[in-house]
Amino acid sequence: MTAPVASFTVVVPPGWARLPAREDDRRELTAAVRAVIARALPDDLPRDRAEPLRQEMRKRLVATVAEAGDNGATAVYLPVQPVDGFTPPVSVIESEVEDESEESPADVIAQLLADAVTDRHDTGESDADEDATGEEHELPPGVREVDGGIAARTETVVRRADPAAALPGIGDDLPVVDDRQVTYTIPVPHRPGRWVVMSFSAISAPDADPRLTEALVGLFDAVMTTFRWTDVPGAEPTTLERRLAELHGTA
C-alpha cells in the first residue's frame, strides 16, 4: 500500500513543471509530460522535424522522473522552457520520509543541523521572524520558518563531481561539474513522524561565475517561502491556499 502524500503546494517560476514520480501517479505523469511537450513543441511545427524531438523529450523526461521515483522521490520539479534562450541547470526533488523515533520535530531538526556539513555560503546571521505578538525574534542559523512551522535548511557543495565515475557508461560524455545542493526538511504538522524533503541541485562548470549559482539558490529559497500546507485536518484553507491548490493542479 502506498503511503499518503502530504498535502501542500509551492509556487514555481514560469516555465517550470512539477512531474509526479510515484508509481501510482504514472497516468498523471503522462499527462504532465504531454503538456510540457505541447508548450515546448506546438502542433503547428512541421511534423517531420518536431516528432523526433517530441519522442526524445518524452523519453528523457520520463526516464529522469522514473529514476527519481525509484529512489524514493514523490515528484521532480524542472525548468522545461528557456528564458531568454537559457534553461538553468537545476532541479528540485520532492520526497516524503517517515521518522519512527519519538523525538520532537525540534529535536530532529537540531540533530540534522548538527550533522550537516558547515554551510560555507551561510553568513552566520540568524533569520528574523515575527512572533504572534508582532515582535521580531531570531531563528537559529539553518532553521527556517515554513508556513508557520520550523524546518531545517542544509547546504553542501560537491566539488568536481565526475559523471563518468558516478554513472559508468552513461555519464562518460558529460563534463566534470560542481553541484550546489540545498535541502529543506519540513515536518508535516498533521502527520506526526512524517517529513517532506525538498532537495535543490544546481550544477555549474568549475570555472563558472559563482554569482549565477548564488542567484539560482536565492530563487529556490524564494520558492520555499511560498510553501503552504493544504487540506490540514481541523483547519479551513485560506483563499490563498485554495488558489494555490488550483494552480498546482493545473501546472
Topology, element by element:
Layout: E1 8-9, E2 16-20, H1 26-40, H2 47-70, E3 73-79, E4 90-98, H3 105-115, E5 127-130, E6 136-139, E7 143-146, E8 149-161, H4 163-166, E9 177-187, E10 194-204, H5 210-224, E11 228-229, H6 239-250
Antiparallel strand pairs: 1-11, 2-3, 3-4, 4-10, 5-6, 7-8, 8-9, 9-10
What does this structure look like?
The protein has 251 residues and is an alpha+beta fold. Helix 1 (26-40) packs antiparallel against helix 2 (47-70). Mean pLDDT is 80; it is low at 118-128 and 130-137. The two termini are 27 Å apart. The protein is built from 6 helices and 11 strands. A hairpin with a 2-residue loop joins strand 7 and strand 8 (149-161). It is 32% helix and 29% strand. The longest helix is centred in the N-terminal third of the chain and has 24 residues, at 47-70. The chain has a 7-stranded antiparallel β-sheet, sandwiched between helices. The radius of gyration is 19 Å and the shape is globular.
